[in-house]
Amino acid sequence: MSVMLAVVLWRSGLLLSFLTACVCLERDCVLGVVGRPVSLPCSLSPPPTPANVTIEWRRDEDVVLRSEWTQDGGQVDGWSVNGASIAAEAVLTGNMSLQLDTVQPSEDTEYYGLFMVSGENHTSLCSVCLRAAASFSLPLLQREEAEQGDETAFLCHSSGGFPEPSVYWLINNTEEPTGGSVSTLAASLPDSHLYNVTSHLKVNISKDANVSCVIENPTMNQTLTSTSYGVKAETVIGRASQAMWIFSTALCVVVGVMVIVGVAYQINLDRVSKRKKKEYHQYMSRRPKRRPSREEETQTMKPQSRETDV
Ligand SMILES: *[C@@H]1O[C@H](CO)[C@@H](O)[C@H](O)[C@H]1NC(C)=O
Ligand SMILES: *[C@@H]1O[C@H](CO)[C@@H](O)[C@H](O)[C@H]1NC(C)=O
Ligand SMILES: *[C@@H]1O[C@H](CO)[C@@H](O)[C@H](O)[C@H]1NC(C)=O
Ligand SMILES: *[C@@H]1O[C@H](CO)[C@@H](O)[C@H](O)[C@H]1NC(C)=O
Ligand SMILES: *[C@@H]1O[C@H](CO)[C@@H](O)[C@H](O)[C@H]1NC(C)=O
Ligand SMILES: *[C@@H]1O[C@H](CO)[C@@H](O)[C@H](O)[C@H]1NC(C)=O
Ligand SMILES: *[C@@H]1O[C@H](CO)[C@@H](O)[C@H](O)[C@H]1NC(C)=O
Ligand SMILES: *[C@@H]1O[C@H](CO)[C@@H](O)[C@H](O)[C@H]1NC(C)=O
């Protein structure tokens, strides 16, 4: 971070130069993860001249740390808020970096400044800006095919991030859904002030379309994408129904063959027995009926034995 060595009067030009310094530094803000410690860097080279000095770290107008040092670099007095601290040998080494215990979930950029206090005079030594952020979890994406019609519902959920992200949907990796309905809700968790975000998409699309949910957290330089692959989902279902189809077809074929064989067998039986009866009647009508009992027996026996051969 830049070290401002120029002595500026607190009541006149200080605020202006403070603001301009931070506008220039906006891009180089320190990124603090919400709930974790962070160090706001400030190095003075050379270290402040060995003298009785009082330094103050301020967040905007509020003093967060005040410390008095003697000529030999010993700390004589000091206090801080929310566990803010600087190294014990800060004045000797020139490393005046401010340690913060936990980063607060602040939506706005926070500006911190280090000042040397001498009576009414404040000398600005460092300015640092801090951005609070936290990573979102990889979004969970659920796809629900409609029971009727073409409308498909999607649900996208991600948790534990900061600040509030922007959420959008992509179809086939490029176009945003047109004519669909999107509703997105970001809920701030009561304890951590982190966000859970849930987005619903209802859209009429073909089943083979890929649908992606994108969560963007520019502060974290984070873009998370989850995709529901339409084609893949369909082939899984397709394979299952294909297996069922093959099974039922095979079953039908087997049953059909059995029926045909049974019918053919029956037809053949009928034909053979008819022929035998006819032959028998012809035979009986041609022959004189002298010894009918034995002939009849043998004739009726024969077709039966033949039938079982078929
Ligand atoms: C520093 O402070 C001590 C006591 O607070 C005082 O005795 C000493 O003269 C001061 N030194 C300077 C250079 O102001
Ligand atoms: C300054 O001190 C802090 C710890 O107090 C340390 O994390 C940081 O690396 C130091 N910076 C330099 C430039 O030595
Ligand atoms: C404050 O700064 C002014 C101008 O730089 C100087 O004349 C004055 O002596 C300083 N006051 C103290 C208490 O250091
Ligand atoms: C936030 O999301 C997480 C993970 O899905 C869940 O366990 C938690 O209950 C959610 N909290 C709220 C307040 O919705
Ligand atoms: C969907 O995603 C799969 C896997 O990345 C890809 O092979 C396919 O071409 C995509 N389909 C479309 C329509 O973009
Ligand atoms: C989808 O199409 C159905 C009719 O097929 C219509 O009732 C419904 O409103 C459409 N939904 C969207 C989100 O366009
Ligand atoms: C997405 O790709 C699939 C497969 O190529 C296609 O059937 C579908 O119409 C596409 N959807 C859109 C909205 O472009
Ligand atoms: C942001 O992420 C992209 C890709 O992950 C990387 O190329 C880029 O350097 C990152 N930018 C910052 C400022 O971290």
From TrEMBL:
<feature type="transmembrane region" description="Helical">
    <location>
        <begin position="244"/>
        <end position="267"/>
    </location>
</feature>
<dbReference type="GO" id="GO:0001817">
    <property type="term" value="P:regulation of cytokine production"/>
</dbReference>
<keyword id="KW-0472">Membrane</keyword>
<feature type="compositionally biased region" description="Basic residues">
    <location>
        <begin position="277"/>
        <end position="292"/>
    </location>
</feature>
<keyword id="KW-0393">Immunoglobulin domain</keyword>
<dbReference type="Pfam" id="PF22705">
    <property type="entry name" value="C2-set_3"/>
</dbReference>
<keyword id="KW-0812">Transmembrane</keyword>
<keyword id="KW-1133">Transmembrane helix</keyword>
<dbReference type="GO" id="GO:0005102">
    <property type="term" value="F:signaling receptor binding"/>
</dbReference>
<feature type="signal peptide">
    <location>
        <begin position="1"/>
        <end position="25"/>
    </location>
</feature>
<dbReference type="GO" id="GO:0050852">
    <property type="term" value="P:T cell receptor signaling pathway"/>
</dbReference>
<feature type="domain" description="Ig-like">
    <location>
        <begin position="35"/>
        <end position="111"/>
    </location>
</feature>
<dbReference type="InterPro" id="IPR007110">
    <property type="entry name" value="Ig-like_dom"/>
</dbReference>
<dbReference type="GO" id="GO:0009897">
    <property type="term" value="C:external side of plasma membrane"/>
</dbReference>
<dbReference type="InterPro" id="IPR050504">
    <property type="entry name" value="IgSF_BTN/MOG"/>
</dbReference>
<feature type="domain" description="Ig-like">
    <location>
        <begin position="139"/>
        <end position="225"/>
    </location>
</feature>
<keyword id="KW-0732">Signal</keyword>
<feature type="region of interest" description="Disordered">
    <location>
        <begin position="277"/>
        <end position="310"/>
    </location>
</feature>
<dbReference type="InterPro" id="IPR053896">
    <property type="entry name" value="BTN3A2-like_Ig-C"/>
</dbReference>
<feature type="compositionally biased region" description="Basic and acidic residues">
    <location>
        <begin position="293"/>
        <end position="310"/>
    </location>
</feature>
<protein>
    <submittedName>
        <fullName>ICOS ligand-like</fullName>
    </submittedName>
</protein>
